[in-house]
Design goal:
Length: about 240
Amino acid sequence: MSKKTSPWALGLIEALKCVGVIRASNLQTKNRLAMLMLDSTLEIAIRQYLTNVKKITLDEKQHRHRDTLIKIAKGHIKLEDEVWDHLNYFWTTRNPQYHQEANVVVTDVVFEEFQDVVSHVLRILYGIESHPFLTLEPSELFAVDARPNTVGFAKLKSKTEIVIAAVSSGDLKGPNDLKQMLKKLGIKKKINEDEARVYLNSNYFYKDEHGFRRLSGAGLTKLSSMTARLKSKGDSDE
């Protein structure tokens, strides 16, 4: 499957960020709440994959129940038997308890085991690396400016990373927009028009309904690792 994960990947990634914030909280039932959020994210991911990638029409009533959905998913999604076994165990044994009992205790071990399985499935289906989004600080999620901090982008050497930085920083459609954004960011490395087209058509981006380039799931994952690396270098220089 192409890792051009299209607009629906953003919703999955933001759900993962919410899971991370819940886990970082001091709520007594945070593991249960995070588990329910992660479970919902997984179901949505599977439904979207079947609908948008496999082009399967899911009936709202007929395919509403989880067991029916999973039967269809098994025929179209290639996962290891042990992954399906783990999901079946959770959905038939643990999940009803978590939904019905508000005070049930979910241990760190149980949560992290399920988190690992969900992360594996999202990686297979969408190319999403979940860890950077599950470990965000709450302040990063609730920042007023949703754009990434551009400090340090001028230090980037990789042309791929430079284009990702540019797309994340504004509305770009083509090579000329890219050129203007690089100038704005203070990035001096030159990318010619032909190179720009190649990079902008890579699996790190997709076109939205207005023709602007946006970061795909793979692009968002790459941006997260880039900014973390730049932030780490900045902190070490102080």
